[in-house]
Amino acid sequence: MSTEKGTISINTENIFPVIKKFLYSDTEIFLRELVSNAVDASQKIKRLAALGQFNGELGDLVVDVKFDKDAKTITISDNGIGMTAEEIKKYINQIAFSGATEFMEKFKEAKDANEIIGRFGLGFYSAFMVADKVEIESLSYQEGAEPAHWVCDGSTSYEISKGSRTSRGTDVILHINEESEEFLDKFRLQEILDKYAKFLPVKIRFGTKSTTEKDGEDENGKPKYKTVEVDNIINNTNPAWTKAPADLKDEDYLSFYRELYPYSTEEPLFWIHLNVDYPFNLTGILYFPKLKNEFEVQRNKIKLYSRQVFITDEVKDIVPEYLMLLHGVIDSPDIPLNVSRSFLQADSNVKKISNYITKKVADKLQEIFKTDRKGFEEKWNDIGLFIKYGMLTEEKFAEKANDFCLLKNIANENYTIKEYYEKVKDIQADKDGNIVYLYTSDANQQDSFIANAKAKGYDVLVLDGPIDSHFASYLEQKGGEKVQLKRVDADVIDKLIQKEEKIELKLSEEESKKVTEIFNKAISRKDMEVHVEAMSEEELPVSVTIDEFMRRMKDMAKTGKGMGFYDSLPDHYKVSVNGNHPLVKRIIESSEEDAEKLAKQAFDLALLSRGLLTGSDLTTFVKRSVELI
């Protein structure tokens, strides 16, 4: 073959600076692109052999990645299909886009530079982000083919001549530029290969590694070991998600989870195997981790692959937000990607895939609930946060989750939303027909209020999670007709669920006014508003509460849901004085000094029951208690 020189068919001198500029932020992807190309070439020769179009020896199909720090080169080699000189000219020299004018026009208007790159087949040319010269040595599988050598220095000029390769396949040699010498490092390359090539379907070899193997026994019959050098194979070519669910056991799924997350200290609760080929192709495995009550959405736990090539761990466009709490992998060749294969492009398949995943997750949870409710209840503390978050953010998920979402009460009993409505709808209906769900966000701190509710025969739910203030609002809308949720310490119990029967206040108007004045003087706090109310004599003499609406808005604000206004408002408490309690009568009849002491003591006792009495105020309360004995 004679040497031939030519110009790459792109009709502009600006293409390489554009490639470098727009892919520069993710330069490491050059290795993924070139290794993926080598894998494709290996897969093609395998298919040709299966079709009977190649009768030679396949040999051990493997992609080699090597580097030479002194020569400043990185070489990616395969023994795949190879290319002739004509094929190199066809596939390498002709960049697939519609012309310089259209390209530059798109370049000017694009809001996101990656959109431009994404429309054109520039994967191979990512090599020029890190190399100032690239060579190709290739020999086609075709009988009688001549080896070809191609070289380009990053301009639009290339040179092609007879090559030196003597076996089928291709070498791509990158002459690394000064700015990219970080890649001439064993650990850096290993890191990139581990990230992108961990599950490629053809073996990826990166030099060798040391390991130990058995070497007979010593004189005492104990095994001896020796250190040997073996091929450093980067990848598992047949990961669990590529297999049929029927061929996998629980241990296979757990083993794959440990392979994905080697530093995880806990095993997943259960998993979902995704496997669909119409109307789109999608495989994968999603794992449910133990979440407890920690609301930390880790957005890098689900990894997106395309034909076993790692693409990204930013999957928010495919996976609904609540599913970001899951771990695992999704693999689909039908998701549109740009050339860097790190960004999704708008496409109807993306929405279809998102809907499919939502349905599969809901179906799996419903199946577990129906077939093993006891086991489901045992897992509730670990998956409840996930399910509630899904119900708040995804309407289609919520429609199904209403049947298996559990409400837990202080007796540690579990009810579905419908079951709980039936449990309390008669006993906890107020005079207006509202069904009041009482709940606690801290059973220890709100114990006295819970005790008052139980004394009335009422049930109290436990809603102590980070998003339960939002979930309380959801239950009011979807939990049943005329449902209201009130935290058990939002008011005195008779005001939380007002019945037809009315308790009469034993104090006169003048006595009520006097009690109010005494308590206002004893408390002397602007954030406390005193009310004298008619309650049962068995109720506490004083209760300190905060309005349900305002408290819930402030709780919601803490989760960052656009309610910062409420979070900035100061706390404002209601001090309910039980006008029918014997202590109040005693306060009225005491001297001004003793009345104030008793009022202060009763108020501090109420603060203590809420966990609001601390520091020096608590010390003073203890001393005063001793004095009053």
What level of helicity do the residues show?
25-40%
Our count of helices gives 20
Q: What is the oligomer described by this structure?
A: single chain
Q: What number of structural domains do the residues give? A: 4
Number of strands: 22
For the record, give the distance between the C-alpha atoms at the N and C termini, rounded to a whole number.
Answer: 111 Å
Question: Which CATH top level class of the largest domain fits?
Answer: Alpha Beta
* CATH fold assignment of the largest domain: Heat Shock Protein 90
Structural class: alpha+beta
Strand order within the widest beta sheet: 1-6-5-4-7-3-2-8-9
CATH superfamily of the largest domain: Histidine kinase-like ATPase, C-terminal domain
> Mind summarizing the main beta sheet?
9 strands, mixed
Shape: elongated
Enumerate the spans where pLDDT stays under 50 for 5 or more consecutive residues.
Answer: 96-121, 338-343
Domain Histidine kinase/HSP90-like ATPase: 26-180
Family: Belongs to the heat shock protein 90 family.
InterPro entries: HATPase_C_sf, HATPase_dom, HSP90_C, Hsp90_fam, Hsp90_N, Ribosomal_Su5_D2-typ_SF
Protein name: Molecular chaperone HtpG
